[in-house]
Design goal:
alpha/beta, nine-stranded parallel β-sheet
């Protein structure tokens, strides 16, 4: 059905009747959530190298301009995050950055690594040592690549973006929907709690949006691993000048997501990219990870909101604001979803363990 699914062997099934039902959903068809959640994180871009050149993305730097975060930089950033009360270390890098960036490959070799994925494991170990739970979003990964780092991650993620072929992904190295779906499926096979989402406004149709959400639902129904789905609007930046989706569009897409997805899967809207107050009545229940320490390196033109601003969103909605860990609570007590390494961090008799348990118990500083 979707480009690349046969090549990557992904079993995704989307019924026409479900597409038609999703297309009929409007904001009045869903209910507002009874609380909003968020996580405190630090954003660590291991490298801004990426094999793709999507026309809306400011994350990647061309070959010759991208570099690698050093272990010392990773450790210092994690320490600052832990001191600021964060619980999550968000690691990102572009898809297969050592594929066409010879400098990155050379830097990895100097650090004793033959791939960015093995270096990601070292980075996650540093985060755990410094008192943060890793949540890695490293683009597309094979089963073997994800297995190399799964046990040192509390959760992982990749944006599906869309199941459609769109011009914004065009070029000689275009993203293939089947590869993204395969990454989401790999996480399910490895029992990794997973975050994914769709991009709104990159040239996809309403049918594409419905099919993308239904594909995510189908993979979750197979594996039970999707913890949240982000509905993210594309935003103007130095590479994208085609505008952002309208308020009416965002409200309808968020409502569609809430209606299509199972109740246990959260719907998130990034509050630095869209005024969440405008969509909280459409089923949003999470405001994502925000950082008191680092920038949003994927969207550097859009600053993270302060905790006060998140509280204002919750007050506008008339619901409580709750802090969470990078792994959603329903996954944390089951050995299937939480590795021994992560469980040890959660149960540790140290400052980090106390911080994690305070968040889980609801005794965090959400009301500060």
């Amino acid at each position: 059905m979707f480009p690349g699914v046969e090549e990557y062997g992904v079993d995704v099934r989307v019924a026409e009747r479900d597409v038609e039902r999703a297309l009929a959903v409007r904001p009045s068809d869903v209910e507002a959530a009874d609380e909003l959640s968020f996580a405190r994180n630090v954003f660590l871009p291991l490298t801004t190298a990426c094999r793709y050149t999507c026309t809306y993305c400011t994350y990647y730097d061309p070959p010759g301009q991208a570099s690698l975060m050093t272990p010392e930089e990773i450790r210092e950033t994690c320490r600052r995050g832990a001191d600021a009360g964060c619980t999550e270390a968000l690691f990102t890098f572009g898809d297969d950055p050592d594929d066409r960036y010879t400098e990155i490959h050379a830097e990895l070799a100097e650090l004793g690594h033959d791939s960015i994925h093995s270096y990601l494991r070292e980075a996650c170990e540093i985060a755990l040592e410094e008192g943060l739970l890793p949540h890695s979003n490293p683009g597309d990964q094979t089963y073997e690549e994800m297995a190399e780092v799964a046990d040192v991650n509390a959760s992982m993620g990749v944006m599906l973006e869309t199941t459609a072929e769109v011009q914004a992904h065009g070029g000689p190295r275009s993203k293939v929907p089947g590869q993204r779906l395969n990454t989401i499926a790999n996480a399910g096979k490895l029992d990794v709690p997973f975050t994914t989402g769709i991009l709104v406004g990159i040239g996809e149709t309403w049918r594409d949006r419905a099919e993308s959400l239904l594909a995510i639902r189908d993979l979750h129904e197979q594996y039970g691993h999707v913890q949240e789905v982000i509905v993210q609007p594309v935003s103007d930046n130095e590479r994208w000048h085609e505008g952002s989706p309208s308020l009416a569009t965002m409200r309808r897409v968020v409502a569609m997501a809430r209606d299509v997805l199972p109740e246990e899967v959260s719907v998130q809207v990034p509050p630095n990219l869209f005024d969440a107050r405008e969509v909280v009545d459409c089923g949003v229940d999470d405001l994502g990870g925000v950082s008191p320490v680092t920038d949003d390196h994927v969207n550097p033109d859009y600053a993270w909101p302060a905790l006060r601003e998140l509280k204002e969103v919750a007050e506008h909605a008339g619901v409580p604001l709750r802090e969470r860990l990078p792994t959603y609570e329903r996954f944390l007590d089951a050995e299937r979803w939480t590795s021994e390494r992560v469980r040890s961090a959660l149960e540790a008799d140290d400052e980090a363990g106390e911080r994690y348990r305070a968040v889980r118990s609801g005794a965090s500083r959400a009301a500060d």
